[in-house]
């Protein structure tokens, strides 16, 4: 309850509800919400109370699984437990719910890996790979993670060494089968298992693209956590981003968080008691594309007009970012700007009896960190795919024809004017919630 109150209800996201309910907020929440301690990495979702479990199986009619670790290079064992087998645990829980109408699983559009062209809303079948290598055995992947972890412990490796090795293992296994990182690989395997094990259960898989700040509800501009493009915006606004790696023509597929939620709600209603599997891409790249050049231009306009004030009370002056459109250009830039000075510092340090050791190690760590980030994000900086949303469009039309309040449950990206959204909603939201 303490976590629920501090990590959920205390967030600014709920201020509209607080203003509406006033002193009745707690009684309203107690009528609507039952907080259950658990762990999706365990059977029965880690719920220990047998009576509570029986009550849930008797009363629950919709299960929505949003639980995930979204770190691109998460430890392989952790990512498997949550993203892959956690999805199975949630499905098995749903199978025990006597009143179940629909099971909704939230995945990511980027389970497609680095596919190019039009990417359809189709399932991944058990054992399928993206690069056509030998069939993927998901149970074997769990064994590989367990065996590696066991061996590291036998070798009495430090916790830091274990963490690093398990992170590297995830990236290696993902790339062996054609996925760029641990996150999308383990999410794809989760989808495979759901499709294989669903039986006659109504299953909806929601695949959002890059989720951005709220468009309207509960108010415009709310965002939590620095993700993908927002990390670039924060670095740029604070004057730390002077160059950018990426193809200027690459489409950045954004979708506001409230549109994703609305699509989920409408899909729940549409697929209740229908024993099939339906996949929805929730994104904008097909119907309302925005390329990275537009993103850079909006950032320049906004932070020129509304500069960030640094700790010394001075405005941070931003300018046009140097765009490096190929990896070769990026490597040349890094070599001239950073690696050569680092080599010079290394020689100077050796000549001065390690006097500059701390400066050298600090610069080395920063360069290593940047190169790691580039390795993880490169597939998306040069992404050539567009996500087909024909199923989602059909859902929008069906909702309209069924007299669903589309002004409340809106999720049409064509209604977004990107300039207005970035200048008036998204970037102000980032400054308010992420510039701390």
UniProtKB/TrEMBL annotation:
Q: What is its EC number?
A: 1.2.1.84
Protein family per UniProt? Belongs to the fatty acyl-CoA reductase family.
SUPFAM superfamilies, per database record = NAD(P)-binding Rossmann-fold domains (SSF51735)
Q: Where in this chain does the record put each Fatty acyl-CoA reductase C-terminal domain?
A: 338-436
Show the CDD domains listed in the entry.
Answer: FAR-N_SDR_e, FAR_C
Per its record, what are the GO molecular function terms? alcohol-forming long-chain fatty acyl-CoA reductase activity; alcohol-forming very long-chain fatty acyl-CoA reductase activity
What is the official name of this protein in its record? Fatty acyl-CoA reductase
* Phylogenetic classification of the source organism: Eukaryota, Viridiplantae, Streptophyta, Embryophyta, Tracheophyta
Give the EC class as a word. oxidoreductase
Q: Which GO terms describe its biological process?
A: long-chain fatty-acyl-CoA metabolic process; suberin biosynthetic process
């Amino acid at each position: 309850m303490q976590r629920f109150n501090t990590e959920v209800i205390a967030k600014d996201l709920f201020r509209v509800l607080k203003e509406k309910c006033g002193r009745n907020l707690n009684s309203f929440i107690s009528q609507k919400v039952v907080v259950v301690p658990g762990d999706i990495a365990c059977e029965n979702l880690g719920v220990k109370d047998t009576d509570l479990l029986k009550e849930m199986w008797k009363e629950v009619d919709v299960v929505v699984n949003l639980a995930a670790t979204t770190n691109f290079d998460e430890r392989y064992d952790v990512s498997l437990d949550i993203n892959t087998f956690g999805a199975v645990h949630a499905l098995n829980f749903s199978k025990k719910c006597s009143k179940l109408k629909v099971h909704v699983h939230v995945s990511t559009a980027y389970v497609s890996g680095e596919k190019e062209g039009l990417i359809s809303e189709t399932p991944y079948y058990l054992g399928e790979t993206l690069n056509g290598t030998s069939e993927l055995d998901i149970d074997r992947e769990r064994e590989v993670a367990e065996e590696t972890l066991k061996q590291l412990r036998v070798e009495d490796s430090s916790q830091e060494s274990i963490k690093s090795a398990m992170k590297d293992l995830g990236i290696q296994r993902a790339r062996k089968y054609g996925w760029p990182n641990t996150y999308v690989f383990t999410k794809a395997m989760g989808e495979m298992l759901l499709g294989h094990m669903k039986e006659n259960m109504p299953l909806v898989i929601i695949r959002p693209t890059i989720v951005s700040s709220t468009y309207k509800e509960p108010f415009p501009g709310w965002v939590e956590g620095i993700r993908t493009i927002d990390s670039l915006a924060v670095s740029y606004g604070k004057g730390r981003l002077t160059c950018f790696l990426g193809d200027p023509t690459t489409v950045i597929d954004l979708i506001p968080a409230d549109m994703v939620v609305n699509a989920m709600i409408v899909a729940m209603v549409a697929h209740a008691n229908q024993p099939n599997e339906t996949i929805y891409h929730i994104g904008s790249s097909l119907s309302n594309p925005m390329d990275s050049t537009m993103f850079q231009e909006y950032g320049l306009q906004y932070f020129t007009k509304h500069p960030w004030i640094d700790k010394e009370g001075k405005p941070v002056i931003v300018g046009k970012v140097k765009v490096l459109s190929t990896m070769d250009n990026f490597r040349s830039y890094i070599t001239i700007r950073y690696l050569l000075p680092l080599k010079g510092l290394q020689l100077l340090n050796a000549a001065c009896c390690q006097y500059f050791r701390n400066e050298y190690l600090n610069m080395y760590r920063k360069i290593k960190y940047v190169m790691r980030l580039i390795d993880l994000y490169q597939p998306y900086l040069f992404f050539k795919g567009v996500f087909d949303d024909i199923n989602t469009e059909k859902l929008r039309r069906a909702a309209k024809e069924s007299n669903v309040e589309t002004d409340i449950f809106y999720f049409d990206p064509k209604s977004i004017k990107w300039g207005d959204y970035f200048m008036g909603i998204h970037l102000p939201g980032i400054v308010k919630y992420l510039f701390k």
